[in-house]
Amino acid sequence: MPAPPPPPRQFPVDELAALAGVTPRTVRYYIAEGLLDRPEGEKRGAYYLQRHLDQLLLIRRWADAGLSLERIRELRAGAPDEPPPRPVRPGTVEVWSRVTLADGLELQVEPGRAGLSPAQLRELVREVTAAYRRVRSPPQARQEVHGDP
Known about the structure:
Blueprint (H helix, E strand, L loop, with lengths): L12 H8 L3 H9 L17 H15 L4 H8 L20 E6 L2 E5 L1 H4 L3 H19 L2 H8 L3
Antiparallel strand pairs: 1-2
């Protein structure tokens, strides 16, 4: 008989907040606003599960994209998953990353607007650099690798 699966991981509010990069007060506020599900258990025995962390990370992603809490509430209620692009107004200050991939080739990214984590941005740079190298390789090498005629 197979062993039963381990019980789901439980997070106290402080740990949940730290994992999501918010304060425990923000977690409680989101619950009061109906943005985040209530914890399991009650009072001092209350705890959060992975689904709470997933919800909180999604709320943060949408908030970081510039959505209002009202719009986030709509999305949580079933509106389409992807938030609309955030309009850029005159006077808006953004921090863009400019990555030199090769002489004469740069990639400019605003990671927050693009929805990229630092790890995802590094992966994008690796993939674009690899694609550039493939395109720059002599035609014979491309034929051997890709089987092109």
